[in-house]
C-alpha cells in the first residue's frame, strides 16, 4: 500500500472516530437534559444517579479513547509505518464504550421515569401562575381606573 493510500485510510478511520465522538457528545447533552427533567419531576432511586454517572463517565472515556486512537494513527502516518492496526484497540474501544454508555442512559431513563412522580409539581406551578396572573389583572384594573378620562 502506498503512503498516500495509507494516509487516506488513516484519515477515514480518524473521521469515523470523530463521528462516534460527536455522537458521544450528543448523548452526553441528552443525558444532562434527561437527568435534570427526571430529577425535578420524579423521585428517582439512588440507582438512577449511579447508572447515570457511570454512563457519563463511559461517554467521556469514549471521547478520550478516540483521541488516543487518532494520536496513534497520526504518529504512525508521520513515521510512515501506518497499518490498519496502528490505532491499537482505541477506536474499537471507543465504539463499544459509547454504545454501553448510550444503553446505560436509556436504562437510567427507564428507572427514573418509572419512579414515583413528585407530588404537586405541575399542579403547584399552575396554581402559582394563576395567582400571579390574577394579581397582574387586579393591578391592571386598578391602574386603568386611576387613569379615568
Task: Summarize the entry for a quick read.
The chain has helices at residues 3-41, 46-78, 90-113, 121-146, and strands at 42-43, 116-117. It is mainly α. The chain folds into 2 domains: 3-118; 119-149.
How does this model look, in words?
With 149 residues, this protein is an all-alpha fold. It has 2 domains: 3-118; 119-149. Helix content is 82%, strand content 3%. The chain has 4 helices and 2 strands, in the order αβααβα. The protein has helices at residues 3-41, 46-78, 90-113, 121-146; strands at 42-43, 116-117. Strands 1-2 form a two-stranded antiparallel ribbon. Helix 1 (3-41) runs parallel beside helix 3 (90-113). The longest helix has 39 residues, at 3-41.
| SSE series | HEHHEH
Kindly, what is the distance between the CA atoms of the first and last residues, rounded to a whole number of angstroms?
Answer: 91 Å
Please list the strands of the largest sheet in the order they lie side by side.
1-2
Q: From the structure provided, what is the oligomeric state, counting identical versus distinct chains?
A: single chain
Radius of gyration, whole Å: 26 Å
Mean pLDDT: 86
Given helix and strand content, the structural type is mainly alpha
Number of strands: 2
Count of runs of 4 or more consecutive helical residues = 4
The stretches of 5 or more residues where confidence is low (pLDDT under 50) are none
How many domain regions? 2
Shape: elongated
The main sheet comes to: 2 strands, antiparallel
Beta-strand content = under 5%
Helix content: over 70%
Amino acid at each position: 500500500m502506498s503512503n498516500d493510500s495509507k494516509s487516506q485510510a488513516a484519515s477515514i478511520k480518524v473521521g469515523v472516530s470523530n463521528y462516534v465522538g460527536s455522537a458521544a457528545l450528543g448523548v452526553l447533552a441528552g443525558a444532562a437534559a434527561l437527568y435534570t427533567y427526571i430529577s425535578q419531576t420524579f423521585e428517582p432511586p439512588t440507582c438512577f444517579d449511579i447508572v447515570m454517572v457511570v454512563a457519563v463517565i463511559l461517554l467521556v472515556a469514549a471521547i478520550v479513547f478516540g483521541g488516543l486512537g487518532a494520536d496513534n494513527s497520526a504518529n504512525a502516518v508521520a513515521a510512515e509505518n501506518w497499518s490498519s492496526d496502528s490505532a491499537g484497540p482505541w477506536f474499537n474501544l471507543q465504539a463499544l464504550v459509547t454504545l454501553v454508555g448510550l444503553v446505560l442512559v436509556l436504562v437510567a431513563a427507564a428507572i427514573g421515569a418509572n419512579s414515583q412522580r413528585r407530588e404537586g409539581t405541575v399542579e403547584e406551578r399552575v396554581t402559582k401562575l394563576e395567582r400571579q396572573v390574577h394579581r397582574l389583572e387586579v393591578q391592571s384594573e386598578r391602574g386603568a381606573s386611576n387613569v379615568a378620562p
